[in-house]
Design brief:
46% of the residues lie in helices and 16% in strands. By secondary structure, it is of the alpha/beta class. Strands 9-8-7-10-11-14-13-12 form an eight-stranded mixed beta sheet, with helices on both faces. A seven-stranded parallel beta sheet has the order 3-2-1-4-5-6-15, sandwiched between helices.
Length: 419
């Protein structure tokens, strides 16, 4: 079996960690995998997967394989791979993996191209690097692809741009748009795991600090909520007036980054955009400011500008680089500006990824059944899948809810009953 991982001797440790995560993923483990094993909905299908190679992803690809798929996995970020997990997937689960933590850009894209070379029927992406590379460099393989899925906000933005420009050649299900994904994964997953990454990297006390959150989408909401819960004074920066009002009414200060830069002790970007923190902001930051990113790509912080401005750079802790400015101020960059929750920590907890990856698995099944009826475009997860994931999660949590009475259903479907 072809593969490229760091060290197969790490496999046993990785298997233990995969099984630990599996315990907290009952929807994927029991409700979906057991059915997939019986009905084989993905039999004969090749899946090209570009996701963070973590314990949670391991349980997704295991489920897809049990459903009959031939799966090939590479990393969607050079710093997010857990090498022991990659080794375990190869050694214990016979899944071809092409991912090494800290791989350089050439190796990163070589791994993506290796997965593409397997000529997948379905792509499963996080950030759209797999899809964009396939479209740009392997147009001859596009006719074979029946559809794809996309995990994150950044990737959905890129895919919608491709669709708008008329270059997207097959339908893609935007898993990120599922309510059972972004309301929980983005908010609670990103909120907790980002704080985890910042604390593991720095061991700093959040209570009493000024914490600047750039962007108030679902990831920003979750991060601001968790930072405030640990005693930080939270400032939110935004470009969207509606989100800015929401942040203010949620109790946070709102101001431009130019002003927040003067006040913040810790900064984190979660916007999906480029150069949110840049030279003009570095120029006014206080000595000791900590800068991090939890958006998908390492473009939200202008690291090149920081490198150019600094007269000295040194690694002071794992995942912490100290940049000394001409005036003696020190700015600390976490995880090289990459996803801090995966560069310095382990990513989202398994419980929220259970829902996200349930959407991935069921969306792949949907593409097999309905992909031929979809035009090349970006689609939301079908409502029946979203609701099914929520129902399965509630069942796994042992929670029961009310159902509408016939009278209530009639009332909601009528227009002539008033006060």
């Amino acid at each position: 079996m072809e593969y490229h991982v760091k060290d197969l001797s790490l496999a046993d440790k990785g298997k233990d960690r995969i099984e630990w995560a599996e315990m907290d993923m009952p929807v994927l483990r029991k409700e979906i995998r057991e059915r997939f094993m019986k009905v084989q909905p993905l039999k004969g299908i090749k899946l090209g997967i570009c996701l963070h190679v973590t314990t949670e992803t391991a349980n997704l690809v295991r489920t897809l394989k049990e459903g009959g798929a031939e799966v090939y996995l590479c990393a969607c970020n050079p710093l997010s791979t857990q090498d022991d997990v990659a080794a375990a997937l190869v050694k214990h689960y016979d899944i071809p993996v092409f991912a090494i933590r800290g791989e350089d850009e050439k190796t990163y894209y070589d791994h993506i191209k290796t997965v593409i070379s397997k000529e997948p029927d379905i792509t499963m992406d996080d950030g759209a690097d797999l899809v964009s590379t396939l479209h740009k460099e392997y147009p001859e393989l596009l006719e074979k692809v029946m559809g794809g899925t996309e995990e994150t906000t950044t990737g959905v933005i890129r895919l919608k741009a491709m669709a708008k420009d008329g270059v997207l050649k097959y339908p893609v299900i935007a898993v990120n748009e599922a309510l059972t994904k972004h309301l929980f994964d983005n908010r609670y997953g990103t909120g907790q795991s980002t704080i985890d990454g910042i604390l593991r990297a720095t061991n700093r006390l959040l209570a009493g600090s000024v914490f600047v959150v750039a962007g108030y989408g679902w990831c920003g909401r979750g991060l601001a909520m968790r930072a405030a819960g640990m005693g930080a004074e939270v400032i939110v920066t935004e470009v969207d007036p509606i989100k800015a009002i929401e942040a203010r009414m949620d109790g946070f200060r709102v101001m431009p980054m130019a002003e927040a830069a003067k006040l913040g002790d810790i900064f984190c970007t979660v916007t999906g955009n480029i150069h949110v923190i840049r030279e003009e902001h570095f120029n006014v930051m206080k000595d000791g400011a900590i800068v991090s990113n939890s958006g998908h790509f390492n473009v939200e912080i202008d690291v090149a500008a920081l490198e150019k401005m600094a007269v000295k750079k040194r690694r002071v802790r794992d995942f912490v680089d100290e940049y000394t400015m001409k005036d003696g101020r020190r700015i600390y960059l976490l995880g090289e500006g990459r996803l801090v929750n995966l560069a310095a920590a382990e990513g989202h907890p398994a419980s929220v990824m259970d829902m996200s990856f349930a959407n991935q698995a069921l969306s792949a099944e949907f593409i097999v059944k309905e992909g031929k009826n979809l035009k090349p475009d970006v689609y939301v997860v079908p409502g029946h899948i979203d609701n099914k994931v929520a129902e399965l999660k509630l069942k796994a949590m042992g929670i029961e809810i009310d159902t509408l009475t016939p009278e209530q259903m009639e009332y909601l479907n009528s227009w002539d009953v008033g006060t």
